[in-house]
Write a structure and sequence with these properties.
Layout (H helix, E strand, L loop, with lengths): L1 E2 L8 H12 L4 E4 L4 E6 L3 H11 L9 E3 L3 H7 L4 H9 L5 E6 L13 E5 L4 H10 L3 E5 L8 H4 L1 H8 L5 E3 L10 E4 L6 E4 L13
Parallel strand pairs: 1-8, 2-8, 4-6, 5-9
Antiparallel strand pairs: 2-3, 3-7, 4-7, 5-6, 9-10
Length: 207
């Protein structure tokens, strides 16, 4: 099922119904601003476990990430020192997953080696969804083959493959595809763990 919500003039009844489903443990697929990803409430352990099952990953070994509405929310789930805050603020519009020391406010499923991955939404629909939910979303890339990149970026094609797995797919139009950079901000250092890979980006993202 595909759901269309317009960020500039959202149907509040439809949005509230979607939020209620997420709070009840439903899974969705939504646009992050780069590609489409699984999303669920970061507070629903069973939903997180279901996302891991669909991806075929072990949360004890695979690093997961959450999407927060803004930088201020990061401090609820991670220890953010001044250097890390400045770096995130300077790069907040870039496709980056930030690794930070985790606090005790999250499920153990989301914490890997005492660290948590945090992202900011780069799509207005993702921002709207998180703000309406009032809590972070687990965000996890779809388990797609490299030879089928359009199944990461086109809602109708995503629906063909994954529509039966989730409550709905939020249609935010076609996206670029690719993966975020991963940057560690642990221990007072800034270290790029993985560069961003955005096939159709107009410029590289230099960190």
């Amino acid at each position: 099922m595909i759901t269309k919500i317009y960020p500039d003039n959202p149907d509040r009844v439809l949005l509230d119904a979607l939020v209620a489903q997420l709070r009840d443990g439903a899974l969705v697929i939504y646009p992050t601003g780069i590609s489409y990803a699984y999303g669920c409430s970061a507070y629903k352990a069973r939903a997180i476990e279901e996302v891991c099952r669909l991806k075929g990953v072990d949360p004890r070994r695979h690093r997961l990430a959450i999407m927060c509405a803004d930088i201020a929310d990061f401090t609820h789930y991670a220890k953010v020192d001044n250097q890390a805050f400045r770096f995130i603020r300077e790069h907040k519009k870039e496709p980056i997953t930030y690794l930070l020391p985790a606090t005790s406010g999250l499920s153990k499923l989301l914490i890997n080696k005492h660290e948590v991955g945090l992202r900011l939404p780069l799509h207005p629909l993702a921002s709207l969804l998180i703000e309406a939910l009032g809590e972070p979303l687990l965000t996890a890339s779809l388990p797609l083959k490299e030879e089928d990149p359009e199944y990461r970026t086109t809602p109708e094609l995503i629906d063909e493959v994954y529509g039966h797995e989730v409550f709905t797919i939020l249609d935010g139009g076609c996206t670029m595809g690719g993966t975020t950079a991963m940057v560690s901000l642990v221990g007072g250092t800034i270290k790029e763990i993985r560069p961003a890979h955005i096939p159709n980006a107009s410029h590289p993202f230099d960190l």
